[in-house]
Amino acid sequence: MSRWKCFLPGVALLFLAGCGGSQHSADEKYYLVSAATKMEYWQEAAAGVGQAAKQLGVMAETDGPDNYDIKGEREQLHALLAKKPSGIAVSAGDPDSVKDDIDAAIAQGIPVVTMDSDSPASKRLFFVGTDNYKAGLMGARLVANRLEGKGNIVIFTFPEQANLKQRLQGYRDVLAEHPGIHISEIVDAKGDPGVVFDRTMQAVEKKEPIDGFVCLVSIAAPEVAEVLTRKNVTGKLVMGMDADERTIDAIKSGIITATLVQKPFTMAYLSIKLLDDLHHHPLASMSGDFSRDPFSPLPTFVDTGVTLVDKSNVAAFAETQKSAQARK
User: Looking at the domain that runs over 3-130+263-297, which CATH code has it been given?
Assistant: First the structure.
């Protein structure tokens, strides 16, 4: 199969089918770099990396600080360039801080894609992940519906991440149509569940007029639910993010209203597969503006999708999740 055919619009399916059957070398190695490798979300991504590496017969691993650390991610990405990897997938904790090292990797002929959180001003080849703006719209519509158009909400996020800025914008745009709903505060969770726990506890103990907690990051909803459970608080809207086990359990018990589930396993799995193909079927140049080229051999964005899980479908989701984990 020609290189051109490998990059036609059905890119994900064609890559999964395998293009060219290239021979892998002993020193071939791929990396996924993120700002918080020990979070449950990134453990799922690591499983995707491992699955892709096993299928391809190559070495691949995750790299980055254990706990949320933007500076640490940049430092480890910078150090990684000296190893001359076969390809790198980067989740940008801060899109600006990793830009120079992404550009340096591309200049060295190392293919780089972003996943989960983009660095759009860099020379990365394309982005693999959620359409975060649409995810924000989806979550906000549920919030507006459940609050019946009025109430005060607190939002937990990581303000520097590009994907979370897009997610927040989706919420803002929908809530602008519901002037009775007010964003009382946007809290920087700082990658620390304790920040979420303490702020929620403060709100409950001071009886602040908060009707809902919106969590744009996976670590937040379980902490909100823990506080509400301890304090026997009911009737609060809690909008989660992702499929942390505690989040799913709290939806079952009715503490968390709903969550938006991304696919970190799929993002990572696809990223390694695509990087492998780029390594074995190199582009004539990686410096082109592929986003504006109607005959580009690359996509701009590979959307891995998002699912809304609430009380109505949480049992079915949990069963599917259990079956998928058993197959790994």
Answer: 3.40.50.2300
